[in-house]
Design brief:
Layout (H helix, E strand, L loop, with lengths): L9 E3 L3 H9 L8 E3 L16 H29 L2 H6 L58 E7 L5 H12 L5 E7 L6 H10 L3 E5 L4 H4 L8 H13 L6 E4 L5 E2 L1 H7 L5 E3 L2 E2 L6 E7 L2 E6 L15 E4 H4 L14 H8 L8 E2 L1 H4 L4 E2 L9 E4 L11 H10 L3 E4 L8 E3 L2 E3 L1 H5 L1
Parallel strand pairs: 3-4, 3-6, 4-5, 8-13, 15-16
Antiparallel strand pairs: 1-2, 6-12, 7-14, 8-12, 9-10, 10-11, 17-18
Bound molecules: uridine-5'-diphosphate-glucuronic acid (UGA) and manganese (II) ion.
Subcellular location: Golgi apparatus membrane
Catalytic activity: 3-O-(beta-D-galactosyl-(1->3)-beta-D-galactosyl-(1->4)-beta-D-xylosyl)-L-seryl-[protein] + UDP-alpha-D-glucuronate = 3-O-(beta-D-GlcA-(1->3)-beta-D-Gal-(1->3)-beta-D-Gal-(1->4)-beta-D-Xyl)-L-seryl-[protein] + UDP + H(+)
Cofactor: Mn(2+)
Length: about 425
């Protein structure tokens, strides 16, 4: 480059070489090429030549030493890179472990193309502006009404991950009591340990779905356990605070909690990702709820999702007949009818129901994992005994000695007999 002073980057029309590149590039990237211009205004290339033809030929000649230089540079880098670096880059070499042979050799060079993707930063911040509720003493929140967050849950392999994710949302919410109501007979000690570790005030209860509904299709999901939580609230004569039904698999925006805490009687707000419209929620005119948008009406006076409302306990206490029937699809409607909700009393939340503060996300459900391994290897010679026993306690996977195919344990890309690794 002849000059050290360059003007701003400017777009330049394609020449032959660029056209070649143009054809290979995806459409959306075909904008402009930028060439450095020197201050006299002429385009700067490695070898400047007078006519376009000369320039093309000359450029090819100039390319030869350039290509040679690049090859020399690559060879130099390869020889000087440490063995560890080469291994980390997947370039092989440097290992005397015979197991390693062939494992990387099959890999095509294309698997290791250089990292040359365009990095387009949209925005970033290096300032940590997070506000953890622990920054303030509990007393700062003492005056806030308590949110009773009722979570029906049930044993399946996603249960512990779901509760863990939800807990990490609730960890940010002051003055909250988490009612975790498990749809099963026995108390799961693992859930107790988990809940204790989070430090969120909680009540862990069990209340299984009555057997007669278990195989119904559709089944009244999460009803027995929500009913148990309603009983708990009544037994404790709670007339202060806010009730919210928060399923274990939804996604909650932290602003939801400040919104529902204001509830005087009944708050309502949109829930994202519900059914065909991907939304369900109130229609608001002049600050008042006048109707509902939901793709499944089915005669429901309150066609809302369980996550789309909150109720003040003071208000609910006036209705001793509060109930949630075992009627799939109608739980919300009949619950809201049992507390005599009136349309003109509903408090629209989330900026007059224009914002989505809760999402009806659903987790893909799968069967229990099955790991077949001889029990004699589940001792403390390796981590596997403790790890797999934990997974059993969490209801994620079962360990077996007979079912299914023997678990694969591999090293350097090759399956090994258990005895080789675990004895
Ligand atoms: C939708 C609504 O969002 C739920 O509030 C409603 O209870 C449910 O439909 C229904 O009426 O069936 P959806 O995502 O379809 O929710 O249902 P799930 O998330 O599978 O279940 C809702 C809640 O009940 C969850 O917290 C889940 O853990 C719990 N549940 C589910 C049980 O306690 N037992 C079960 O057998 C199934
Ligand atoms: Mn759900």
């Amino acid at each position: 480059m002849s000059s050290a002073h360059y003007q701003a980057l400017e777009p330049q029309t394609s020449d032959e070489d660029n056209e070649d590149i143009e054809q290979r590039r995806p459409k959306q990237q075909q904008h402009h090429h930028y060439h450095l211009r020197n201050h006299s205004g002429s385009t700067t290339t490695a070898c400047s030549l007078a006519t376009p033809v000369m320039a093309r030929k000359g450029r090819r000649r100039c390319l030869l030493p350039l290509v040679g230089g690049v090859l020399f540079f690559i060879a130099f880098c390869y020889l000087t890179l440490s063995v560890d670096t080469r291994l980390a880059l997947g370039l092989g070499g440097g290992s005397d472990d015979s197991d390693d042979e062939g494992s990387h050799n099959d890999l095509d060079r294309n698997n290791f193309r250089p990292l040359n993707e365009t990095v387009h930063i949209c925005s970033e911040s290096y300032e940590d502006r997070r506000q953890f509720m622990q920054d303030k003493p509990n007393s700062e929140y003492g005056q806030l009404p308590v949110i009773y967050f009722v979570t029906p849950t049930y044993p399946r392999r996603e249960q512990i991950p779901e509760l863990t994710r939800l807990a990490h949302t609730l960890l940010h919410v002051p003055r909250l009591h988490w009612l975790v109501a498990d749809d099963q007979q026995k108390c799961n000690d693992f859930i107790d340990t988990l809940l204790n570790r989070f430090g969120i005030p909680f009540t862990h209860m069990v209340s299984p779905m009555p057997a007669k509904f278990r195989f119904a299709d559709p089944a009244p999901r999460g009803v027995a356990n929500r009913r148990a939580a309603l009983r708990w609230l009544r037994q404790h004569n709670l007339t202060n605070g806010v009730l919210y039904f928060g399923d274990d698999d939804n996604t909650y925006d932290l602003r939801l909690f400040s919104e529902i805490r204001k509830t005087q009687r009944v708050s309502m707000f949109p829930v994202g990702l519900i059914a065909d419209y991907a939304i369900s929620g109130p229609v608001v005119r002049k600050g008042k709820v006048v109707a509902f948008l939901d793709s499944w009406v089915a005669g429901r006076r309150w066609p809302v999702d369980m996550a789309g409302f909150a109720v003040s306990l003071e208000y609910m206490a006036q209705y001793p007949n509060v109930n949630m029937p075992y009627k799939p699809g109608y739980e919300e409607d009949l619950f809201l009818r049992s507390i005599n909700v009136r349309m003109d009393e509903i408090e629209p939340r989330g900026n007059n129901c224009t914002e989505v503060l809760v999402w009806h996300t659903q987790t893909k459900s799968k069967k229990l994992g099955v790991v077949r391994l001889e029990s004699k290897y589940l001792d403390d010679r390796s981590n596997l005994g403790a790890l797999l026993r934990n997974l059993e306690l969490m209801g994620v996977a079962t360990i077996t000695e007979s079912e299914s195919r023997t678990a694969q344990i591999s090293k350097n890309g090759k399956a090994k007999p258990h005895s080789v690794i675990l004895s």
